[in-house]
Specification:
The chain has helices at residues 23-29, 32-35, 39-55, 61-79, 92-104, 107-110, 117-153, 173-198, 217-223, 233-238, 241-267, 295-318, 333-356, 361-369, 375-386, 390-407, 416-422, 436-442, 451-464, and strands at 158-163, 166-172, 200-201, 228-229, 275-276, 358-359. It has 465 residues and is mainly alpha-helical. The strands form 3 sheets. It has a two-stranded antiparallel ribbon. A two-stranded parallel ribbon has the order 3-4. β1 (158-163) and β2 form a beta hairpin. α3 crosses α7 (117-153), α7 runs antiparallel to α19 (451-464) and α8 (173-198) runs parallel beside α19 (451-464). The structure holds arginine (ARG). Arginine binds at residues 31, 35, 91, 117-118, 121, 325, 327, 329-330. Arginine binds next to α7.
Length: 465
């Protein structure tokens, strides 16, 4: 990138300026270092604008053909890494326009009729965010598909369910996987909502007040895949809600990823040993040969920090800004770029991890039975078979758990005599409900952990996606 050594005023707006900007001014003012990522969207917007200008009779066909061809060449240069980005030209919009002028002469100067950089940047940025929303949509569907496969394979695998990270009741691996399907599917719908709401075109709002030229905003909106033109020009150039909504949905999604990551970190530890992450998503230690570190999961757990930081950052930039455009808004892009990159990477890495991870079935089953996890099943049996009020059943079960604990055995290892010493009416049939398998099979309420219920949900989601 070249820096300003020219002592002349800016060629884009230098008419009333006698001096070039100070070097520091140029540095703080320029956005080309990052907004070059909007090049494709900028060219798309310019082409739609030019095509409309010829249709309404503002530009000649000849000029617009030259503009279009010049923009195509510029797009090729940028893709090939041959474009001479210049910080003196501040941002992507002026860089492209200046280059176009070098290529086609005066016609380039007519492209900026009836538009401003304010509607241009709002349009470009919206198109960019919309593209990322579409990427995230695909990535989330991939992640959900990986969970559905895991759930299907592990629909009957029993594992401990936790509350407070204490063993609570047995659940199935499939059920646990499907909990994440619900979470990420809500993310999917949040991103879709944001996309539907943001899909209005700012182009043609001009600087802030609209324009006296007889432009056709419906036409440019349609050409760029927007549902309609934004209805208020002041709002159109100063709205960054679309970026904030993207960041909010991204923050919630990253929060879900971090919860999942935390489980994978815990589960893959030697102490838990619930799951084996594949070699593709773990690293070794340079000093401790036995180590398999869940780095990818840890990094996915951490990404939420910068994604949520981006959201708080942009909310703070936007807070208190008067209408319409202020240069503060140039600070909108980097947090969104960073959050989008981070989320995309985290979703891809997580999808890989989920696809390849292997539940340790024996270990999970064994752990499912620890901690008197079927105590609730015993209490439920007392209610159902002996017509005991639940509170009394809870008390009796508590005494039996205490007895098992004192003897150092599992609940089902107590003898019938032991049980009857606490509650005389207990019969041998109670032992049928004390295994972890019968416990999970019995939880057939809608949304419950019973394998058949989980299979229903897998089917429902497969049909929906
Ligand atoms: N580089 C600017 C941005 O990213 C473009 C808009 C400039 N508009 C203006 N009135 N200076 O926000």
């Amino acid at each position: 990138m070249t820096t300003s050594s020219k002592k002349t005023a800016n060629s884009m707006w230098g008419g009333r300026f006698a001096m070039a900007p100070d070097a520091i001014m140029e540095e703080i003012n320029a956005s080309i270092g990052f907004d070059q990522r909007l090049a494709v969207q900028d060219i798309r917007g310019s082409k739609a604008h030019a095509a409309m200008l010829v249709d309404v009779g503002i530009l000649t066909r000849q000029d617009v053909d030259a503009i279009s061809q010049g923009l195509d060449e510029i797009e090729t240069e940028i893709a090939a890494g041959d474009f001479p980005f210049s910080r003196t030209l501040e941002d992507i919009h002026m860089n492209i326009e200046a280059r176009l002028r070098e290529k086609i002469g005066d016609a380039a100067g007519r492209l900026h009729t009836a538009r401003s950089r304010n509607d241009q940047v709002a349009t470009d940025f919206k198109l960019w965010v919309r593209d990322r929303l579409d990427d995230v949509d695909g990535a989330l569907k991939g992640l959900i598909a990986a969970f559905l496969d895991q759930a299907e394979r592990g629909a009957d695998v029993v594992m401990p369910g936790f509350t407070h990270l204490q063993t609570a009741q047995p659940v199935t691996w499939g059920h646990h996987m499907m909990a994440y399907v619900e979470m990420f599917a809500r993310d999917l719908s949040r991103f879709a909502d944001a996309r539907a709401r943001m899909n209005e075109s700012p182009l043609g709002a001009a600087a802030l007040a609209g324009t006296g030229f007889p432009i056709d905003r419906e036409q440019t909106a349609k050409a760029l895949g927007f549902d309609r033109p934004a209805a208020n020009s002041l709002d159109a150039v100063s709205d960054r809600d679309f970026a904030l909504e993207f960041l909010s949905a991204a923050s919630i999604c990253a929060t879900h990823l971090s919860r999942l990551s935390e489980e994978l970190v815990i589960w893959s530890s030697a102490q838990f040993d619930f799951v084996r992450l594949s070699d593709k998503f773990t690293t070794g230690s340079s000093i401790m040969p036995q180590k398999r570190n869940p780095d990818a999961a840890e990094l996915c757990r951490a990404k939420v920090g910068r994604i949520m930081g981006s959201m708080v950052g942009l909310l703070t930039v936007m807070k208190g800004l008067p209408l319409a455009y202020s240069k503060d808004m140039q600070e909108d892009k980097e947090p969104v770029f960073d959050a989008a990159d981070s989320l995309g990477l985290a979703l891809s890495a997580m999808t890989g991890m989920v696809q390849d991870m292997e539940p340790n079935i024996e270990k999970l089953r064994d752990a499912a039975g620890h901690g008197y996890s079927t105590a609730t099943d015993l209490a439920d049996w007392l209610v159902r078979e002996l017509n005991m009020p639940f509170r009394d059943a809870h008390h009796v079960t508590g005494s039996l758990v205490k007895m098992a604990e004192d003897k150092g055995v599992a609940l089902e290892a107590l003898s019938l005599e032991d049980m009857q010493s606490v509650e005389a009416k207990i019969s041998a049939a109670v032992f049928d409900v004390l295994s972890v398998e019968s416990s999970t099979r019995s939880r057939t309420s809608y949304g419950g952990t019973a394998p058949d219920r989980v299979r229903e949900q897998i089917k429902r989601w497969r049909a929906m996606l």
